[in-house]
Amino acid sequence: MLSRGFLTVMWAIVLVYFTCSINPFHFRISELRFTGHPNLELILRFDLHPLRPMWTISKIGHYSGFLIFEYLLTRWLRHRRLSAAIAISFAILTELAQPFFFRDGRLYDMVIDSLGVLTFYLWYRRKRTPLRRKDHIRLNMHKGR
Prior knowledge:
Helix content: 55-70%
Largest sheet: none
Number of domains: 1
Strand content: under 5%
Distance between the termini: 44 Å
Shape: globular
Radius of gyration: 19 Å
């Protein structure tokens, strides 16, 4: 249980690094700088650039990063709803924190992050939902043949 918590916290640190670092894709020149005067209006900017490769890679990173975070949280906490609420809250907070680190948080990134969380949540919920009684009966009838 401790190692699951450790992995989850480490993954959260990775997400914060990629969220708040000025240039997260260049590790040698990457840095965290804080500003007391963020431009919060950028959060509402709707500047989609799906044909730009780095933009697309970034959005795939948002989705998969928070899907993995939800997986780790669910394994650690063993509570689907609580872990999903924490993961979505963390996604929102990381986007709101970006302007304080000379980055541009975006509302649509919050949505993409949340879609990653919800994808794992719904998959895990479906996987863990017990079969209904009539489904059990139907399965047993097929076994008898």
